[in-house]
Design a protein that fits this description.
It is built from 9 helices and 12 strands. By secondary structure, it is an alpha/beta fold.
């Protein structure tokens, strides 16, 4: 391959998460094991630093069930009375589960080959940052009293150990797992209901017309959502020089460039236009839009997401 050394060293691919047999039976297990534990720890640290009450409904108690109390109504069975809570007041109270009042959020992360890219400017692949943001956001949402699931993989959970639960699910993804960006439509069998919130994290490298069609189909179901666009800084800045040859991560196509600097300005204009079009499409369909560059702290994007999702939920 004829290319300058900078381009060769600038782009490197990281092994994808395993999609086959159980982890212990695959060669990808060791590679994944090197990545996920660090991301889990980092996600916990970032979430702990932020801990925002996104929905304003923090609930006490560990586990996956949370409770609220309402006044006892004449005619109800006295077995439903919570005597401990009632002893604090002059009224009788009944304890009920609060699941119905909690918002449901679905987390989708792009695991396609293009997400394995990382440049020297970032040192971490887009996939790793997407996972980090997704796990930390899930933790913030659960601590705010919400439930988080992954479409086609896990039901909505309110587990205080949500980071580990979702990380384990990601590690065991199976072929054919629902992907809203490749599916023709949102299957009716998926438990994503009207007014649920779908967080989509990826680079969305596809024709913008296709992105618009996919998102419109999801929004047509009455699903709310937020698009988180992940970009490596090299994808935006085009920090290359000399003669280059680029290889596609999701195809066998190559692109030879005579002199990188001759196309740098046009490239930056084009990627900026694509980003803006993705943002416009998201907003048109009632979705929030956030862009994250992988050389920036994840906490910055999480703060933006917390404010955006909290505002939409209010």
């Amino acid at each position: 391959m004829a290319s300058n050394n900078m381009a060769i060293e600038e782009a490197r691919a990281i092994p994808a998460f395993t999609k086959g047999p159980p982890l212990a039976l695959t060669s990808e297990a060791a590679r994944l094991a090197d990545v996920l534990p660090h991301l889990v720890v980092e996600a916990r640290n970032v979430a702990a630093q932020l801990q925002l009450g996104i929905h304003g409904r923090r609930r006490p108690g560990p586990g996956e069930e949370f409770w609220e109390f309402r006044p006892f109504v004449a005619g109800e069975s006295t077995s439903r009375i919570d005597w401990r809570r009632s002893a604090r007041d002059d009224r009788l109270y009944v304890r009920e589960r609060e699941w119905e009042s909690a918002s449901v959020h679905w987390l989708w992360i792009d695991f396609s080959a293009s997400m394995h890219f990382a440049s020297r400017l970032a040192e971490r692949p887009k996939r790793d940052r997407a996972v980090l943001i997704g796990l930390a956001l899930a933790d913030l949402l659960v601590h705010a009293g919400e439930r988080v699931g992954m479409p086609g993989e896990t039901p909505p959970l309110a587990s205080r150990n949500i980071i580990m639960r979702l990380a384990e699910t990601m590690a065991r993804r199976k072929p054919g797992t629902f992907d809203p960006m490749t599916a023709d439509a949102l299957p009716d069998t998926l438990p994503i209901r009207r007014q649920d919130h779908l967080v989509m994290i990826g680079d969305f490298i596809m024709p913008t017309e296709e992105f618009a069609e996919k998102l419109a189909r999801i929004a047509h179901r009455g699903v709310r959502g937020t698009v988180v666009l992940i970009r490596d800084p090299a994808e935006e800045e085009f920090p290359f020089s000399g003669e280059l040859e680029f290889e596609g991560l999701e195809s066998n196509e190559t692109w030879r460039v005579g002199e990188a600097q001759e196309i740098a300005v046009k490239y930056r204009e084009r990627i900026s236009a694509i980003n803006e079009e993705l943002r416009r499409i998201a907003l048109k369909n009632g979705f929030g839009f956030v862009k994250h560059l992988t050389h920036r702290p994840a906490a910055e994007t999480l703060l933006t997401l917390a404010a955006l999702i909290g505002g939409n939920a209010a």
